[in-house]
Design a protein that fits this description.
alpha+beta; 2 strands; two-stranded parallel ribbon; 2 helices
């Protein structure tokens, strides 16, 4: 009788443990399957009239960053000569 009660208790414990592990595994796999959100950056670059900004900074932040990061990062850039509003910063 003592052995039967122990077996029943052990069976219930292992069944509950198995169900909890299955649920946790399911939630973990669901979280891993979701793509990470795109990180948006807002950049204040150099002076707008200089080649440094027009040839290097603006193309890098608006086009190259997204391509090089595989779409994980995206950025907007404004030149230093444009007054930034609180919404832009």
């Amino acid at each position: 009788m003592y052995c039967t009660a122990l077996r029943t208790l052990l069976r219930r414990y292992l069944t509950g443990l198995f169900l909890a592990a299955t649920v946790m595994f399911g939630f973990t796999m669901q979280a891993l399957a979701q793509p990470s959100p795109v990180q948006r950056l807002r950049i204040v670059g150099g002076l707008a009239g200089l080649n440094q900004y027009t040839r290097n900074e603006e193309p890098f932040w608006t086009k190259e960053l997204s391509r090089l990061s595989g779409g994980k990062f995206d950025a907007d850039i404004i030149p230093l000569t444009v007054p930034a509003s609180p919404v832009q910063i």
